[in-house]
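Handout, page 2. Input:
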Amino acid sequence: MEEGTVTLFAEKLSNLILQEASVFGEVEGQIKLLRNELELMGLFLRDVDSKRVYEERVKAWVNQLRSATHEAEDVIDEFILKMDHRKRRLNTLKFLPTCVGMVDKLPFIHELDSRVKDINAKIGAIMANRSKYGLEDLTASSSSTADQAVSHKEKRAPVVEESDVVEIIDGAKKVKQMLMMKVETSTRSVVSIVGMGGLGKTTLAKNVYNQRDVQGPFDCKAWVYVSQEFRAREILLAIALQVMPLSDEEKKEMGEDELGKKLFGYLGEKKYLVVMDDVWSSEVWSRLQPHFPDQAKDGSIVLITTRNKEIALHATYSEEFIYELRHMNDVESWQLFLKKAFRGTGTTTPTLTTELKELGKKIVTKCKGLPLAIVVLGGLLSTKEKTKQSWEKVLASIEWHLDQGPDSCMRILALSYNDLPFYLKSCFLYCGIFPEDSEIDAWDLIKLWMAEGFIQRRGKERLEDIAEEYMHELIHRSLIQVADRRLNGRVKSCRMHDLLRELAVKQAKDANFFKVHENMDSTFPISIRRLVIHQNLINHDISQCLHNSSSQLRTLVSFSGTIGKKSWGSLQEHIKLLTVLNLSEKEVGGHVLPWDIGQLIHLKFLCIKGFRSHVKLPSSIGGLVNLQSLDLGGNDCNIPHSIWNLKKLRHLECWNCKISSQSQINKCVNGYLGVEQLTNLQTLALKGGSWLEGDDLGKLIQLRSLELSKCSTSYLKTEFFESIAKLTVLEILNLSFTEGHTMKTLVNRLGSVWEKKNVTIDHHNKTLLPGLMPFSHHAYLYELSLNGMLEKLPKEIEFYPPKLLGLQLWRCKLRDDPMMILEKLPSLRILELWFNAYTGKKMVCSSGGFLQLERLKLFYLNELVELIVERGAMSSLKTLEIWRCDKMEKLPHGLLEQTNLEKLSLLGSSCHKSIKEIEEVGGEYWDKLRKIMC
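Output:
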């Protein structure tokens, strides 16, 4: 992957030469020489990689190149940092003559010139030593290189991981039989699935868990990933969040014992099914068992997956309820291989030549019946030409990798990694920074890849779109798996198999790509560029861990705890060149970022995830001139108005934060600062404020996602709505208005705008729809959320986005039944009505309406008495949730005739009377209702 490191730095130098020519001055020649050497190094390293040269002597030579590249990058970035400090100092001394500034600059230039000359000489010597390693005969082209990756223009079909990863039918049947037998017992039971890594334990457990007749008997269900990094409180919290309501305070403040007692009390009245996936030690069950009531409702079950049979026996007590996964036989292995190697070709039974079939079966045999190895190898071959020559190369590579050690599965996975094109290797390795078995937010991952510089520009294409294609290719190769998808089918989150993560961490360690801090007493390498913390350092200071590091830290990611004031002070010397700062807060409290953070001019990604904790940002935040992404999650913050200086900002995701107003004095001194300066913004989530005044918002024409909360009436003027109308590439729009909005306050402004668009408005039927014009102009908008008084919805379908998939309405106080309008939206799949979105007593879904609707949520509709679902309505409905609609005593008329309905969730006294009547009568309706209720 070193060719990626070199290539990325060479590209960075080229951009700097264009942008900062006046800064480099007389050193520009040496900088260009360095850039040219790096470009040649990158080509040579790519060729070495494509030839699969893995000898130790070559690794040593490559390590020298990597070290020289890192040294060069540090030198250049330190120079830019010093020049930035000099510029800021001179800006405070504007009265000094220009000649003083030039003299002040000379020492930095001379130092840079000397250091770059030394590095150029070092690189020249390293390149001259190629002959010693027997590499001089390697050519600059390779037939395998072109074969490495499918063209970036190819759009891949979505991969449904649950169906095309191994599915052992008899195993699913047997585990299901075990569960059904335990359902009839009088106490809580444990069933275990045992098997080595890569056999498909998780896939098998999911297959069983997701079956409707398995879920039917249970009142509540939960699935948790345990992994080696076991933390009891996090596991208990993950279970509790799936089975019971918790307040924000309880989520944050309850300790392990208190949380365990609350969970115990709740489960004591329920028949529950809990899956604990990937249990690594007997301690896990010993620690968690007391929180699962043994005398709960008859038939409660805990399902465990583990690699260790001793752990299964410790929890299950009897081998009768332990299912041991077997290796796949030859027929199963071949079928799975074909499914993966030929997916996307439109056929599940490809016709192979005799030669290809023989080669394919030899390849499959090397996998020894391990599903993960077969899936990954199939993914690799799906990117290759279906020729004898191409498959022979793969077989030869497999044999070479298997000769390197006894662990056949890990060796095959290593082959798939080595086969990746250089631009994907860094992306794959980076997935290893996340904790084992964690669900990785796809959007966060894309932003991190961008900040790290892994995404190569391609003309005018958006970096985010290119990054998404990188992700799809890793999914296509089965190196990461889709965990969840968005409404529009794009990846929402992904996972990494623990063996693949183990491979990524090992490869990253060998290449000094990142260091995962999982051991309190672990020794850090001399040179560390990316540090990932999975545990609290307790008595250790981060700076102590970095004390021996000879290079500057570029990435600091913490998944546990906060960084205190003392740590910030001691960290300064190690993070001057930081590019990524990602802090996931799990403790009560907040973050106070020091003033010095504004000096981190190389910072591109700043994330402090949490929920409703207070984050304090200094006004120096406006000095982060290269920042691309600021994400404060649900934390509260008063962001300084200097944020508007950050013209490279692409993602501002701070939905619970407001922007401070710019004082008149500041405007006079520094000029007006406003949102219109952030023309690169793709994502914007903020509280409404004075920054919404005027038409500045409409200048952000690249916005894909806009979330505005607590917008007061004073900002909702004609210019605001005109701005929304100009944002025609929006995909997600979330507008929340403060209480007190009325239709009459705003509709006249809307009406005048609509009339300009030649749309006829019925002024006697005033409506509020934040769109300024029919949403037919918003061709990409698929998710819309409106929070505030609407009173009436427009009846004309052209007012709605043509491809709207999801709609949320909050506190709208609609007087007329909204279903008669919304049921006509042709693509709507999810509809949610929250907190008196409708204040009427009756809703009717007419025959033929809501043909695509899959999920309907009705939450806290206090006046709703009756919901009627006519025959032929909501024919695709899978999930219905009715919470706290307490006047609604009966189930929706026609509900139980919905053949696709899989889940019915009721909270409070909603439909209580009807449920009780059906239970007393029993029969077919009760059987169906019992299976889908949760």
